[in-house]
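Supplementary Note 3. Input sequence used for the single-chain structure prediction.
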Amino acid sequence: MSSLALAVRDSSTMLRRNLLHARRYPSMTLNLLLTPIMLLLLFVYVFGDVMSAGMGGGADRSAYIAYLVPGLLLMTVGSTTIGTAVSVSNDMTEGIIARFRTMAIHRGSVLVGHVVGSVLQSVASVVLVGGVGVAIGFRSVDATALEWLAAFGLLTAFALALTWIAVGMGMVSPNAEAASNNAMPLIFLPLISSAFVPVDAMPGWFRPIAEYQPFTPAIETLRGLLLGTEIGVNGWLALGWCLALSVLGYFWSKAAFDRDPK
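The predicted structure, written as C-alpha cells, is reproduced below.
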C-alpha cells in the first residue's frame, strides 16, 4: 500500500475509535450540548419579549428568535469541542499514545481521528440545536439554497478551526480537568459577542472586546446567510479567523504530539 493509502486507513481506524468512545460515553457531549439548548430556551421564553422590544422589534419574541439562533448554533460548536480537549488529554495521560508510538501506524492518524470525529459531532449537535430552534419558531424563509449551503460550510469550517485549537489544548493539559478548564473560553467568548445583543448596544469600552474576536464576524455572517440579509466584510473576517485558527491549532497540536514524552 502507498503511504497515502496507509494514512487514510489508519485515520479511518482512529476515527472509528473516537466515534465508538463518543457513543459509549455520551455524558460529556450531552452535558455540553445542554448548555446552548438551555440558553436558547431561557432567552426566548424568559427574556424574549423584553429583548425583542429593546432591539426595536416590539413585544414579539419571534424577532428575537431569528436574531438568537445563529449565535447559539456557533456557541454549540464551541461547546462540543470542549469534549475534544478532554478526550485528547485522556489519551495523552493514560498511556495509549505511548502505545500508539510503538505501533506501525501513521503518526498523524491519531490527530486526524480526533479532529474528524469532533467535527462530525459538532455538525450533529448543530443539527439538533437547529431543530430545537425551528421547533420554537425560527424560520429562514429569505435564504436561498446557495446561502444555506454557504451557512453549512461556515459552520463546518468554524468547527474544524475550533477543533484544532481544542486538540492543542488537550495536548498541553496535564489532565482532563485542566483540559476542560483551558477550553472554557470556547463557551465564554460567544457570551461576549453579538450572539445575544447587537454590538452597537454594548458600552463603548466593552464594544471592541466583542467586535474583535472570532465569534462575532462568524455569527454576523451566519445570521446574514440564514436570514438573507447583508453580510458586508464579516464573511471575509470569518473566513480569515477560520483559516488562522486552523493553521495555528494544526501546528500547535502537531508540535505537542511530536514532542518526546517526559
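The chain has a mean pLDDT of 85. DSSP finds twelve helices and no strands in the chain.
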